[in-house]
Amino acid sequence: MATINKISVPQKCHKELMAGIDWMNNFRKRHPDLSLRTPEGCSLSRATSFNAHNVNIFFDKLKELLARSPIFANGTRIFNLNETGTITVQNPQKVLAKKGVKSVCKVTSAERGTLVTTCIIISASGQYLPPVIIFSRVHFKEHMLLGAPSGSLGLACKTGWMNGELFLDVMNHFIKFSSSTKKNPSLLTYYNFEAHLSIAVLNLAKEHGVTILTLPPHSTHNLQPLDVGVMGPFKTAYNAAIDSWMLHNPGKTFTIYQVAASVGLAFLKAITPTNIVAAFKKTGIYPYDRNVFTDIDFMCSSVTDRTFDVNNTCIKNHVSITSDNFFHPHVSPNADPTTSTTIDTNKLVTNDTMVNLSTSSDFFISPKQFRGFPKSGKKSVKEGKGRRVALPLPQILLREIGLRKGSAIK
Predict the structure, then answer these.
(1) pTM for this structure?
(2) Do 152 and 116 form a contact (C-beta atoms < 8 A)?
(3) Maximum CA pair distance of the chain?
């Protein structure tokens, strides 16, 4: 590329057919605004699924809901729900130690902790509902909630994970503390985990005026308020609470019976109105802002350059029947970004064009023209597989879910 652009390079580069470490060091000196950083891992599913197409569908449906129910306009009836693991082993915080010491240790309760799941529900107005704490036990005992926020719900499960049966109790808990009815409806957003979409949960939500809007698959890191601005501070505060407990109780083991108290301390420090309001604003859910994400945010999905078959996907999945209460994803999780750049391989630089361009004095071949972006092939989507993105879930689809799961739809 340097030869085509008539850029002088050391003779060693011609011999090795690549730039060396000296060139790299000089390049960094010429561009002091660049730094060597460790990138954060992003799965392929997140990179391809968080795209303009899926996000626009989500905001279209959110706009439709806000227009249909004016009570949602002030944010007091918009909620977000998510679970997080609150284990019994903390990540030790930094300590001061003498330089040169090779091993610096800090006591933890065990090598691997016991899982306790905490379900958090927040409102766009800056308030939070009492959490739901799921302990990895067969039977729940009231003393497990000692020190938890007032009104917390305690549940028990062998694995400590959320499931459809427990989520029915969570929905009842939400309805109780949100005072949701058909005359006082509420909008609840969460990701479309299978346990969240059992037929019993959907029936219960419908009876009490709860409108469910599921988030597009693999996009919660940008679209879920709890993930965006609340879970981080909460996990930090929870970790600090365990550290403090270990410091004040030397020689003792932190168990699941101390988790609730640490969750209570973390709630006071992290689940604040400032953090909650800022998180909803950053996702564009409230205040409503569909332009909160730019092309830079969709850059990962555009590089895959996967074409979107509009005719096959949209027409086949189109549903003309609408429901009053349920919005459920209905577009492939690998739907392609509208912002993706299509690379025409015929227009890439070839050996023939190199000769012609080299005779021109005012040309420059960019790396994109020289090599192009990586291009992902068309992905086959199996019938009935995967989640969808924010379209109406009508009564006929609810009936199909009930038949598939062996349940009856009311």
Answers:
(1) 0.76
(2) no
(3) 83
> What confidence tens digit (pLDDT) does each residue in 242-261 have?
999 998 999 899 999 999 99
What is the rounded distance in angstroms from the CA atom of residue 10 to the CA atom of residue 281?
A: 52
Q: In what order do the strands lie in the sheet with 326-329?
A: 153-156, 128-135, 116-123, 78-85, 186-191, 210-215, 326-329, 390-392
For residue 306, the model assigns a pLDDT of: 52
Give whole-number Cα distances, 30 to 25, 36, 86, 209, 312, in Å: 9, 14, 47, 61, 50
Contact 79, 185 (CB under 8 A): no
Q: What is the pLDDT of residues 375-389, one digit of tens each?
A: 666 666 665 555 554
For residue 165, give Cα distances in angstroms to 258, 327, 405: 25, 21, 13
Cα(279)–Cα(234) distance, rounded to whole angstroms? 13
Residues 6+ away with beta carbon under 8 Å from 258 = 88, 147, 242, 245
C-alpha to C-alpha distance for 192 and 212, rounded to whole angstroms: 10
